[in-house]
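Hello Y.,

Per our agreement to keep a running log of every chain we model this quarter, I'm adding this entry. I've kept the format consistent with earlier entries: sequence first, then predicted structure.
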Amino acid sequence: MDQVNSRKLTMMIAYGELIHLLREKALLRSDGNYYDDDFDTWVTPSSFETILKLEPDLWNNFGWSIRVIFRCSEGTEEERHKTNITIFAQILPVCGHQYKAVMEKAVAKYPAIEMYVLQSIGHEQEGILHENWLGELFPEGWLLPAKPFPFDMPGFNKTLNLQIPAQPEKLLDCMYGNWHVYSKEHHDRGTNCTSSIAKS
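Predicted structure for the entry above:
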């Protein structure tokens, strides 16, 4: 995150990890295990592109790589190049990584950092962000600009300078309802939070 923040990039904690940060004030259980098998983040396209360029450093220093999934269009190579959309990526350790040749999340020994790309699609009154993997729609003002979230995590000798959305409670209320109470259920794919714009 230091590299992300120093470059003024957007990489916000999202989904389940956002719940754990705000509800449990933790990413690890009391027994030292992670709450989730991944760390969800939302990234803007420009931030995503810059983070991809950091892969050589991730590989050389930590043995981690980046796995990218595209939504590909048909047509000529030139047409495909113009319309292919990055929808999801994982930063994960290569050792212990279970290879998958299909468009699914890979599993590794340590939780992957997952990047869900947010695409601006515009709106008459306010910008709308479309999350390309799950198909979520959010009012831009609920996410951007991201807020700094300094976090002290057990086992780390320095503060993690994380980012969270501009209005995290509104997002979680829309996606999960009563997120203050633990549940094993995931929210429905394709949540549309834009109907709440007038109430924000």
